[in-house]
Amino acid sequence: MGMYPDWKSNCDFLHRAIGASTSSGHERGQWCQRVQAMAAALIAPQEQGKVEKPSGPGGPLLFDDLPPASSGESGSLDTSISQMVKNEGKGAKRKPSEEEENGSEELVEKKVCKASSVIFGLKGYVAERKGEREEMQDAHVILNDITEECRPLSSLITRVSYFAVFDGHGGIRASKFAAQNLHQNLIRKFPKGDVISVEKTVKRCLLDTFKHTDEEFLKQASSQKPAWKDGSTATCVLAVDNTLYIANLGDSRAILCRYNEESQKHAALSLSKEHNPTQYEERMRIQKAGGNVRDGRVLGVLEVSRSIGDGQYKRCGVTSVPDIRRCQLTPNDRFILLACDGLFKVFTPEEAVNFILSCLEDEKIQSREGKPAVDTRYEAACNRLANKAVQRGSADNVTVMLVRIGH
């Protein structure tokens, strides 16, 4: 766009110069026509907004899918994720007040393989370990199919699923409350109508669900004597057919295992965003609310900057507004890993994905009690990964959930 004024002025200059120096009216007319045609060819795409946008390795950057894994790095899995933010332009910053009110939704790029018209099956598996803690404060929910509970729905929507992990702190009450109530609130608020209506309103549905669940718990917590001080992270995956909506608070994570055809390797792609007080936007929100960050914690105590519960920190800028991401499942997707930070204190996402893949390919794992071999292997992968996290010295509770993507 910066070239537009220069080309236009140059063309005007040539037009005048030719007119002044050419004696033949016919020749002058031909030159003018050529110059004007050249100017129109250069200017029109800029004026009409038809300049082609930059493309990624798989083609034009589109709306809501994960990017391909980088094939340029050998020996490691690509964990980067490219984002298309609604506010175009580099350096644009979101206002804290706007984020507080509307949350944030991150849209990601189109990748190499195309989305499938076949609805993939989803099935969850989980393993929990108390570790060195006195009590188990994690909680989880696996709902492979809640389609009936969400009706009335469009006949074009054939499957709705929900998977979530919650990492409690200060007690088990907040994580247990969220596990029992968040999906119930989601079902009650789930958008009705056709597919387009669902797509337009599901973000607001998730924001309202988190807000309502947090308010319900805080009301109950404040009515106790003494008041409960429990809090919890939340990482939830809502699947509407082949579209995933990931909403999260805190430092529990969701990772997608996707096969890259170019590099012929599996990639660990982050579907969630961690929230801790050391991040710039999180710290600014906390300080604006009158709180402070010491030793990487809110008021020197709380490790996360977004949570359900934690009533004593809500006045200091801790919020229950989730980050929301959306992506489309593809035939190259293998599984989704949801886990609390007890796992990621001792495993990187890449290490966890590679560990799971090795378990799934272990032919020594045999089916038991009439179970399909694939179920047995996923269960074994969950248990082995949770055990290994404890063996590596994770002093926290460990929850490992795998969601198998069936093709």
Automatic annotation (TrEMBL):
<dbReference type="GO" id="GO:0007229">
    <property type="term" value="P:integrin-mediated signaling pathway"/>
</dbReference>
<comment type="similarity">
    <text>Belongs to the PP2C family.</text>
</comment>
<dbReference type="Pfam" id="PF00481">
    <property type="entry name" value="PP2C"/>
</dbReference>
<keyword id="KW-0808">Transferase</keyword>
<dbReference type="GO" id="GO:0004722">
    <property type="term" value="F:protein serine/threonine phosphatase activity"/>
</dbReference>
<keyword id="KW-0007">Acetylation</keyword>
<keyword id="KW-0479">Metal-binding</keyword>
<feature type="region of interest" description="Disordered">
    <location>
        <begin position="47"/>
        <end position="107"/>
    </location>
</feature>
<keyword id="KW-0418">Kinase</keyword>
<dbReference type="InterPro" id="IPR036457">
    <property type="entry name" value="PPM-type-like_dom_sf"/>
</dbReference>
<keyword id="KW-0904">Protein phosphatase</keyword>
<dbReference type="InterPro" id="IPR000222">
    <property type="entry name" value="PP2C_BS"/>
</dbReference>
<dbReference type="GO" id="GO:0005737">
    <property type="term" value="C:cytoplasm"/>
</dbReference>
<dbReference type="InterPro" id="IPR015655">
    <property type="entry name" value="PP2C"/>
</dbReference>
<dbReference type="GO" id="GO:0016301">
    <property type="term" value="F:kinase activity"/>
</dbReference>
<feature type="compositionally biased region" description="Polar residues">
    <location>
        <begin position="71"/>
        <end position="85"/>
    </location>
</feature>
<protein>
    <recommendedName>
        <fullName>Integrin-linked kinase-associated serine/threonine phosphatase 2C</fullName>
        <ecNumber>3.1.3.16</ecNumber>
    </recommendedName>
</protein>
<keyword id="KW-0401">Integrin</keyword>
<feature type="domain" description="PPM-type phosphatase">
    <location>
        <begin position="123"/>
        <end position="405"/>
    </location>
</feature>
<feature type="compositionally biased region" description="Basic and acidic residues">
    <location>
        <begin position="87"/>
        <end position="97"/>
    </location>
</feature>
<comment type="function">
    <text>Protein phosphatase that may play a role in regulation of cell cycle progression via dephosphorylation of its substrates whose appropriate phosphorylation states might be crucial for cell proliferation. Selectively associates with integrin linked kinase (ILK), to modulate cell adhesion and growth factor signaling. Inhibits the ILK-GSK3B signaling axis and may play an important role in inhibiting oncogenic transformation.</text>
</comment>
<keyword id="KW-0460">Magnesium</keyword>
<keyword id="KW-0963">Cytoplasm</keyword>
<keyword id="KW-0378">Hydrolase</keyword>
<dbReference type="InterPro" id="IPR001932">
    <property type="entry name" value="PPM-type_phosphatase-like_dom"/>
</dbReference>
<keyword id="KW-0464">Manganese</keyword>
<dbReference type="GO" id="GO:0046872">
    <property type="term" value="F:metal ion binding"/>
</dbReference>
